[in-house]
Amino acid sequence: MTKHFAALFLIGLMWADTVPAQDDWTGWLGPQRDGIARGVELPDSLPDELNERWSINVGTGYGSPLLVGDHVFQHARQNDAEVLWCIRVDSGDVVWKQSTPVPFKMGNGGEWHGKGPKASPAYADGRVFTHSITSVLSAFDASSGRQLWQRDLTKDFSAPYPYWGASASPVVAEGLVVLHLGGDDDGALFAFNAETGETVWRSGTEGASYSSPLIATIDGTEQVVQWNHQSLVGVRLNDGQPLWSYPFPHVGSDQNMPTPTIIGSTIFLSGENRGAHGLSIENDGEVWSAKPVWHQDDVALNMSSAIAYEGNVYGFSQYDRGRLFCLDPTSGEVRWTGPPRTGDNVMLLAADGHIVALLDTGKLVIAEATPDAYREVERYDVSDQPTWAPPVMLSDGVLIKDKETLKRLAW
Fold this sequence. Notes:
Helix content is 3%, strand content 44%.
């Protein structure tokens, strides 16, 4: 074995054996896809301003940065290509970048959202998985950026992706990459072998939405929970067997966008102009079912996903031109709402007893995670550009992706 090959082998082994630490952020809404930044402690006294450690122009797109050990991965668009970046978190130095041509024409009315990827990448076992805006799923070696495999199933469906472009973020579990592919009218939920890209199972025929799949263990059964174009469904993870379904279709211009929120066997589901719903997922030993528990029209999610934290659901209602809210997931009662006219979109995280909200206006809000009242602790101006991508919490600050730039800010 030559010294060069040995060095490459050791680097690859180091990446492959990396186990996500508590503060690693390996996909959309984090390693457990629940928006909770475990292991992150906020300062006892937050500063008045944040310090910029480094900033890189990585391109357009709404995908979350990923944090794996000492490295940050960012998927974005520059000109006519989608670029996957690997960056050192301490210095901002670029380790590698991989560029792939991705021609795309945005649907009328969505031009202001840009052509950048809307899905967040995912990391697992030394690989980074990306979902392009044209719905092509790719796997890359995390240590070198080499493409390992790619699946392009756009010819399988009447339309290759939803009208505004693909935005569902892949999720990885038990050696499978799970993602719903297809257009508005027809599609399927897929599980691919994470190592080879081969199809392990394919489930359903319903069209794709802009929501992302979740992995949950409900009543002892590990399952994929996915809100597609027509329904919220539960599918057994190991073989794709359908378990239950709850009709909640895209209607007119009211899109199915947020990722559902799971609290035990209860699911919080909310859609544009359709209020908020609490569902109970039940199994009588033979038959699974999704039963409505409550419904209310006081709040409704549009594009923002809600998170469950310490017994409460925190979200961002489209009503009153955007306002944060806290809700009791058992009854649907709204505990409080924040100030109106907050913005068009918020990306929510929870950390160390606080809710962290990145507004699309470039402001980062930190509030107490309490059902008693809305209590804002601090507010920062983190960008003069739109901020639609989810932030990532660090032990000493936060990663922010704005319209074109990725930056590291410190407390």
